[in-house]
# Entry
Amino acid sequence: MHNSSKHLKFLKQFEMMRRLWLTPELAKRIAEHGLEDYPHEACGLIGGVGEQARSIARVKNISEKPEHTFVMDGAEFINAMFDFSKRDEALIGIYHTHPYGDHLPSQVDMREAQYPDVAYVVVGLKNRQPRVSAWEIRNGLAEPIDIIISETEPAPAPPVMSRAQVRATVIALVFSFIFVIVLALSLLPPAPPIPTR
# Structure
């Protein structure tokens, strides 16, 4: 792999994720992991390229309260990251289950999320019926992202501006508006003299 290709791959993994594509097999393996570890929270990593998941790595939950929270085993986490790297994959997702709850991130999930540029996949196992959703979590806030479970590659996502691009566009529009107002005022003819008596 050329050096510039490695740099591009490195930079691409930090782009804002808009959606996550899982094959039905990978989605099934994540749900099975949750059901096997029930009533404890199961957790693991998703490796892939861009939006496409290519592998998952189960990671042991070493939380003192595994029914309600998850803490990934550090050694298993590092080993999974090395395995992804060997396959030219990046960390694109982190999954965990809520054994008794819905597929929504909890306040703890949002507070403790440390990877803002990956998809957080939450599997709700209420009534032992797996339901899956994906989220972008940054600064303690969660926004849903599309999760696509399909064998075939989905159509390309429409281009979306980054937050910095949106801010720059808004600032440019505000300054343009101010400039037009100032220019219009400067082109007005002088006010007629006020008659005095």
Q: What stands out?
A: The longest helix spans residues 163-187.
